[in-house]
Amino acid sequence: MNHFEVRGGELHCEDVPLSRIAAEVGTPVYVYSRATFERHFTVFRDALVQAGVVDPLVAYAVKANSNLSILKLLSALGAGADTVSEGEVRRALAAGVPGERIVFSGVGKTRGEIAFALKAGVSEINVESEPELKLVAQVAEELGLRAPVVFRVNPDVAAGGHAKIATGKAENKFGVSFAEAARLYANASNHPHLNPLGVACHIGSQITDLAPFEAAFSKMVGLVESLRGEGMSVERLDLGGGLGVPYFNQPDPPSPVDYAAMVARVTKGLKDIRLAFEPGRVIAANAGVLLASVIHLHERPEGRKFLVLDAAMNDLIRPAMYDAFHDIRPVKATDAAPVVMDVVGPVCETGDTFTRERALPPLGAGDLVAFMSAGAYGAAMASEYNSRPLVPEVLVDGDRYAVIRKRPSYEEMLADEIPSDWK
Ligand SMILES: Cc1ncc(COP(=O)(O)O)c(C=O)c1O
Ligand SMILES: N[C@@H](CCCC[NH3+])C(=O)O
Q1: Residues 6 or more apart whose Cβ sits within 8 Å of residue 407
Q2: Ligand 2: distance of its center to the CA of 205 in Å?
């Protein structure tokens, strides 16, 4: 079931023509399908349950798309939240995610953030280094409580994909090294203010092959067994996120069903353990598009064509940052022969190029285009670079839509700045 499809010659999100949103809200704008978000979450969770995983904690990675309305609808389906800052913990709480379904990850949590999360009753603080373990213990002692900690272990597994989003190799900053995990776990077990619950790993993002997951998860299962063998209690194994999504012309990732079957197979020997997952992209990416208007087509006499849009790298940074490919579709379908062009934004950076030499239908000023698969790491990574107001977001539900983050006015954009009165 695809909720972004051409009907009557025009691209729709569910039952709403994208041209209507462009006319009423303006462009650039992110447009999300509620039904797709809900389906993706349900498919992921149900795949695990059907494969035999009992009561998985599916903690949606808030960073992928952190809009409160999105968090609210996932929370209502039973989703937890994987968070990496106090801001994300606050978002999750504000959206109604109960503390016991919140995971707090990240390599540099501050004292204040740890205190906030502990007071909020998060389910696990994923500790990523020895100094952080000490800090969590200190804060827990000051607050007079026992901190639920899970050790994020770096399994030293290469996940493939773009180097900027690989996290599971020893050279990456994430997690305690495999070799020190047992010692730190034992220290925590003997500490009055620490309650070690288990271990976690997250090896990267947009992973399109099961093999690296399987290699990492097998190591984690071995670690749980050896910790238990040394008499330590391990009740949780958090397997992170990272499952890739189809980005049009790229290798098809494994389905959630294949992923779940592998998880069930690799973990089946472990008894009395709760599995947790932190999927982000697989829930959000294909649930959203970035809708933009063509400002003009600039044709050089030598032949190169630049399609200049009103969306730019500040609205969708993935192509500039990771050379990411997003399918670009005209909102009005046409059979006209394609033309080869570069698609660029108005920002003053050469990197503000969404794609080079892409064959697209003829397009000109005022035409609308949609960047597909933009629901994850799109709006969440947007900025105001070049003093462009933060891109708004719209959620579609059947034949209705709601603006779930408005476009700030220029006055609002400037309002937080305090001009100094220095001479
Ligand atoms: C700790 C952690 N968990 C989960 C995720 C979500 O990853 P993805 O969106 O690839 O599922 C990330 C981002 O890669 C992460 O850093
Ligand atoms: N922001 C990245 C994914 C990073 C995942 C965060 N650990 C992307 O758009 O592909």
Answers
A1: 25, 26, 29, 389, 390, 391, 392
A2: 6
